[in-house]
Fold each of these.
Amino acid sequence: MFNFSKMKLSLKIALGIGLVVMLFVVLAVYTVINLSKINNDITDLSVKYAPIVEGVAAVEKAYLEANLYSKAYVIRADENSYKNAEKYKNKTNEDIHKLEKLVNKFQNMNAISNKLEDFENLLHEGEALLKNMKEKNIELDKLMAEGNEYGKALSYDLTIYSTMQAQKLKKGLRSGDSMDIISRRVTKMLFANDSLDLIKTYRINVLNAILKNDNKQLKDNTASLDKIYSDVDMILAMTTKDVDITRLNKIKDNLKKYQQTILNIAQARLKLDEIEQNRENVANRALIFTEALSTSGINSIKDNSTKVAKVQTQVKDFVFAGLFICIFLATLGCLVVVNSIAKPINKIVKKLDDSSNAVTDASGKISLSSQQLASGSAEQASSIEETSSTLEESSSMVRQNTENTNQAAGLAKQTKFAADKGYAEMNEMMGSMQEIKKSSDEIGKIIKVIDEMAFQTNILSLNAAVEAARAGEAGKGFAVVAEEVRSLAQRSAQAAKDTAEIIENNIHLSEQGVSVAQRVNSSLIEINDQAQKVSDLLDEVSTASQEQAQGISQINNAISQMEQIVQNNATTAEQGANAADSMSAQAVNMKTIINELIIMINGANQNTVVDRCSAATAQQSKQVQNIKPVQAPKKDQSAHKPVSKIKKDLCSNNTKVVSPEDVIPLEDDTEGF
Amino acid sequence: MSGLDFTVEELLANDYDSVDEEFLEDFFVEAKEHIENIEMKLLELEKNSSDPEIINSIFRSYHTIKGLAGFVSQLLIQKIAHTTETLMDLCRNNEISATKKIIDIILLSTDLINKICQEQSLNKNENFIRTACNHLESIQNVIESKDSELSLDIEVEVSSEVQSPKIGEILEQHDVLDEDDIQDILEKQSENTEMMFGEIAVKEQKATPKEVVEAVRTQAKVNTNEYMRVPLSKIEHLTNMIGELMITHSVIEQSTINKFRTEDNSISSNFLKVSRITKDIQNLAMNLKMVSLKSTFQKISRIARDTIFELDKNIMFITQGENTEIDRSVAEKILEPLVHLVKNAISHGIESSAEERVSLSKAVQGLVTVSAYSKRGFVYIEVADDGKGLNKERIYQKAIEKKLIDSNRNYSDKEIQEFILLPGFSTAEKVDSISGRGVGMDVVKTEVQKIGGKLDINSQINKGTTFILKLPINNAVMNGTIVNLAKSNYIIPTINVKQIIQPKNEQWVYIQSKQSMIKVREDVIPVIDIWRIFDQTKSKDYEPELIIILEMEHTLKALPIDSITGRQEIVLKPLGEEFKNLNFFSGSSILADGAVSLIFDIENLFKLDEGAL
Amino acid sequence: MLELQVNSQEGKYLTFYLGNEDYGIPILKVKEIIGMMDITYVPRTPEFIKGVINLRGKIIPIMDLRLKFGMDEKDYNERTCIVVVEVLINGSQRHLGIVVDTVSEVMNINGKDIEPPPQFGAKIDENFLTGMGKVKDKVVMLLDIEQIVNSEEFVALFNNMREEETSIV
């Protein structure tokens, strides 16, 4: 803030407003963060804790059910109860797993999850116990059945024994056994029946004890069996028959076993009781755990709610405080900014006014100098034009020169062509002569044929003459004809011979002709060569001229480029003048604007400044007007040839007309080409 | 009928059919010529009745007709000719002047003869005979009275229909109509003269149109069968010219085809056509000269009969294959050899006595057969007897006796048999009019060889002997092998060519450092010293490329030659009087290129070679 | 015809050249004139007999007159001709070809222009000549062709042959 005054106006304003806005933003951010925290907590409440509590409740409920059925099983020891207990145990397990999953989703639930783990362990323990109990129950059932079996067998054997003794007795009585035997037998029977009774009683007692769940009585009752044991021993002592001894031994054996079984049962039942005790223990512990679970769930909900309420209060307080600070800071900033803007603007406007006046003056001066530059350019252009035209003339001279050379070359070529043609025609002529010779040969052949024919005719005519002579008188006329034919044949032979000679002559002459033609031919070839040489030389000259012409045209090009540049210069000068004009106009404009600015800043009471400014402007515009007469004709000139027009004007002013020849002494120059 | 020494009945009873058709044709042709001559002469006679030469000529013609007519049993013609001849004789002797009347009579006679010549059936036509008799009677009257005015006017009316068989007759011959039918139709025709016989026959359903048309054709055929006598020389000239034509043709053909071969196929095909036609013409011309052996055999039969009578032997003589055709000149030339052979067979072949034959358990009657047949361009004539056969020992003895052979040499049976063909050989002890002059057999052989033939003997003792003559159908054309020798072409009759070999050095046998012999397998064959024969000096280093082995009568000789040019049918031309003495050439022939080539006469060549040695 | 010739030498003659000399043959002896053609050599004949030719189917012997007259042999060219003559050889009418350098013309020679042949000094045997004809500025030697053909040499050849023939057959 220490260099605040140096800062841009807009920046200053922005800084002020920005500060305030920042404060508001800080405030708003704080509020929003806290609000979102609250919101989270509330969400936690609904999403996290509520289902946990719910789960805990479910677990509790399921466990209670399971426990109920476990207990029922302990009492009833039936399958149904077991199954239900199992089922609810499983359900509890499932619920626990669900809860675990839920708990694991969120952090900071270790308390619950630990508890849950413990609970789970308990649950497994209980389960194991229940299973153990079941096993024991089965064992017990088996033992019971066994005992029952032994008991039954015992009574049966004894009954059979006594019945048999009775029958034997009856027999003995009928057969008249000795009294001794009979008495022994009666004794035996008495012992047996006694034992039978005892067993029956014992069995009833056992049942009672079981029903009453009195393990002690069960154990104690076994002593009564010892009596039976001794009875049987007695009988044994009296018995001689092996069969009976065996049977009695068996009874004894069974009795022993029965006794043992009963003892086992009693023991088992004790064990069962013990397990039940354990189970009860575990169940109780578990129940405590469930309670603890639900309690902890509800507790966490409670904690959260309190936390939310606390945060809310904090936020409310902070927002109010922030608002106050902001309003204060904003008002302060505004004041500082407005002050810092207004002061420098006033200073600037003053300086602006001064400098605009200076600009108006300068622009007038630029306009004037531009005008002068333009006129100078025009003069330069005209002199270049002159050079150009002179060059053009010399170029045309060179061109003519080239043309002449070309013409000469053409003539040389024509000469060569004519010589060529002559050569070709000569060749043709020679060919024709050969042809003549050939046809002469052919004619010679034909003449030979004619000669041959004449000879044949001669022979024929002679034959005819012979025939005629043979015909005697009658053949006379014919002989005349034959003679005539013969003379004709001879004449044609002669003619053929003559022709052959002529042809021979012809051949000779044509041969001569051929040799002459050959000589002419060689001369023509010479001519042809010479013409070729001339043509070649002229071609060289022509090429040189062409090169010269090319050089001139290059110079021409350079000049026209110069022309272009000069023209460009003129144009640029003109444009400079124009720009100066428009600059002064702009200066006036600027003045007006500055005035307006001043009015805007300082209010309408600052009139003096405006007046002074307008006076300066008026003076300047007057200066500009003085230059205008020079500018005007320039602007009239057409766009294409501004330079040449000026040049013309200059030329006409000059009055002295200079011909290109005077400027460039042509004769001298041509020698150089 | 006073003056006639014969009656109409006699004429009618004459047997006209016994004569051979061919002879009859010949007779008619000849008679017609004479009649033409007579008619021409008669016209001359009218102009110049006193010329004895004309009358003589007419007389001779009638005389010839009379003679010929007697030969072919043309009794009526004979009578007419005879009577007219008598009349002419009177004229000739100027006993009767040849008036117009006489000329008319003679003309009438010629007409009658002419009519008979044209229409044989007139011989059986009683009306015609009567007319003729009347005419002859009137001539007789003239002869007897020597008054030409006493002749009767007789019109000879022979309708043109008489000249050719009637349709009715032909149809009757064809078993289409019987006599009654013909009579019916003729009656109908007389009622309606506009209609033709055939038309009525068809209309009356006696004959089908087809049968009638056939009959008309037959009639036309009979009408056109005419003859004409042409001098043999003309025919020979014609054959020669055709031979010439063939040669010229082949010359043109060769050069033309060589020239145009690639350009035009039609030329060569046309040439082929032309050569076919020429060949046909040649065959035709050759055929013109062909005659059957009938007349030859008839002559032989006659001689054989005479000979048998003369010798009084019981021999039957038979001829077979008399229709075999042969060149006329050959037929003429063969007669004498055949007569010799037949006579020999009768006199020497057949046993002299019947007992001899009986002892050999042969038929009492001997048998001599002359048979002819043609085979592969040759005509074979066999003269066979079933007699004794050739006695080889006697022949051998005789040959030795007559010093005809070399007694130091062994001869095969066949060679011994052929001794009888040697000149001057005759085994018969006594010379009689029939055989035994010792010239017979060698004449036979020479004659046969002259006409290009060959004579073979086939004899078995006590079984018989057969002489086989192998004769060319005509002697003008033969197959020749053209060889090149000392840059000229010569022709060797292919029949004499046995073998052509390429000699190897070791085959030559040198005598006096000359290649005198050549060894061919087992045989050593003498080489003909052709240079000596040609009267030329042989260049020393001349080595013949080829050797051609020639065979003649079982003799082999080798002829060195340069090359074989070809083999073709050649037309033999006599070499001419000038060279007649160069007898180792039998003649010349014109080859396809138009050049003349000389034909070797192998027999004479051999002889000349031997003579030169 | 022959009689006519014998009686008078006057008449038409066919003239021809042998070398530079003109010869004449009575035209009636001439059958025809033909160009040169291939001649088939016949062995065992005198040198002047060149052989035989085929004249339209007739075989006729050819005699070279130059050789016969003992002149140099000359190659035949297109001017060389064969004059076919009709002659009596041993009494029979024969055709014979005579090779001459070239034929010239048929000319009529009057009897008064004919002189007898010189007794000596002639190039050829006087027996072969019947006379010397003078026509215009030329002298034509008139040949007796029969005499030539029947001359000893020629006849001897034939006779020799005939003897040979008879001895063989």
Amino acid sequence: MRRSLAAAALAALLCVPAAGQSMSPMRGQVASFDDAFAVRVFPANPYGHRIRIAVRVYDQEFRPVAARIAPNDFMLGADASRPVLVVVPFDGAATRKVRICTESVPFPGEQTQIKAQICGKFLGQRRF
Amino acid sequence: MESKPVLAALAASCLAVPAGAANVTFEGSVTPTCTLTVNSNGIMKVSANLQSLSSHNAGGQAGVVQLTTTGGVQVSVDPVTDADLKPSADTSATTWTPTYAAAGAHTISETGSATTLSAPGTSTVSVHLAGTKAGSDRFAAGDYSATVVVLCEE
């Protein structure tokens, strides 16, 4: 368990964030010595008010992936950004491509709501 | 006769490149980024024949999203399969069609397909949603609500 967390933390450090985006980075390649790889993304709130943000992980066909996301749903203040750690299992594969998406509905409860979804593509490669 | 120009050239070269000078190079890299800011949601209005509930109809209004990117991303809208909210009296099928158009740094004619944005800049994206009923089906009295997902991905 400790080894797994250490590998995940090390892998997460390899993804360098950029400030002031809705989600950054939008691409990444991570090498992992464990049965999961980790990516740290930085969702940002460009609005002048608090919004609820969800972080989700999908495969290439937009099917949900059972990844650990911490935190996966949260409120984010105006013009703020925060780190989110995503740990994706390889599920026995040597490589795995996933989409990590930041989703928000900034003005809920109206007739035609618009959900903004920013997705990045990430490749995990398992080292043996 | 020729020594003067040679000496002048040597002097000039000494002034231009002092001993011990070195070039300092800078490198940088910009990765693809995308920011979507929803400025306003849309409004759908029903048509006179009650078979269309659309932001294109009279009194309707497109949703407005501001998109800022470095380029190297793709924008699209996800299919809408059903309304989030509809009157209980509406039991017939509705076909929902989300579309979008963009103006500004990127010019996109109204489409429902994905568009690759290679240029950087900021654009205003207009998002439309149209629900249609076929045959003798009609929209029922009551409140409707639907969600259009605007996707920007690398």
